[in-house]
Design a protein that fits this description.
The protein has a domain of 101 residues: SH3 type barrels (Roll), CATH 2.30.30. Helices cover 64% and strands 11% of the residues. Strands 4-3-2-1-5 form a 5-stranded antiparallel beta sheet. Strand 1 and strand 2 form a beta hairpin. It starts with 15 loop residues before the first strand and ends with a helix.
């Protein structure tokens, strides 16, 4: 087990880890919050666990890197009924790629996948029953009707689950479309603001150019008058010296 030692890199928020809580095996999770202490040994980490979404706070000695210890602690357990949450946690941990990723999205994806898999398994079991029934030499009406009812119920269940998933996805799509519309409206407002700023800039530039031309002409006019005054002064001086 890879432990942090003094001087090693401290785990950061969003890091994927295995954490050990008394009474449980090493469980995958992410660092949800860091409470820094004076030393590594006194630092505390709030862990958000995959699968159950429980939270707890642990010291570094109870935490180890997920990637470095995946082969040791990240193997699915065979008794899925008893270890359903642990196996689910491993799947979610593998799908968690970035600190910006929403665990709720991963959970919903897993739940939809589980529903479809269970429904398909039920249909598979019914199909197997039908095939076994047809392979028999003797058949009876009651069994045929029973199997037909099972097939119908399985297909209805699959259809119902698919409708629920489609409805959920449609709602998600509606929310995303509303968000996109809001962003497009915001983009339009920003573009209009940029256009207005460019127009204002152009107006100011024109005014500045006009004032520069006016100032230049004024300067030349004053310079011309100064030259006339100088000529007149020289003329008067010459007149006085005669």
């Amino acid at each position: 087990m890879t432990m942090l030692l003094k001087g090693d890199k401290v785990f950061a928020k969003g890091d994927k880890v295995f954490a050990k809580v008394r009474g449980y095996s090493h469980w995958p999770g992410i660092i949800d919050k860091v409470e820094e202490g004076d030393t590594h040994e006194t630092s505390k980490y709030q862990i958000l666990f995959f699968g159950t979404y429980d939270k707890t706070t642990l010291s570094e000695k109870h935490i180890c890197s997920y990637e470095d210890n995946k082969d040791k602690y990240g193997q699915p357990k065979t008794d899925n009924f008893k270890n359903k949450n642990f196996n689910k946690a491993l799947v979610e941990a593998d799908k968690y790629l970035s600190p910006n990723q929403d665990l709720q999205d991963i959970n919903e994806e897993n739940e939809n996948s589980t529903i479809l898999n269970n429904t398909q398994n039920n249909i598979g079991q019914v199909v197997e029953k039908v095939n076994n029934y047809h392979s028999r030499e003797e058949t009876d009406l009651e069994t045929s009707l029973s199997l037909a009812a099972e097939v119908g119920n399985a297909l209805l269940l699959e259809n119902s689950e698919l409708k629920n998933i489609i409805n959920d996805k449609s709602n998600e799509n509606r929310v995303l479309n509303n968000h996109i519309s809001a962003l497009m409206e915001e983009r339009h407002v920003l573009r209009q603001h940029i256009h207005d700023l460019k127009q204002t800039k152009s107006t100011y530039e024109s005014e500045i150019e006009e004032k520069l031309v006016y100032s230049e002409n004024k300067f030349l006019d004053i310079k011309g008058k100064c030259s006339e005054f100088e000529d007149e002064i020289r003329f008067l001086k010459d007149k006085l010296t005669r």
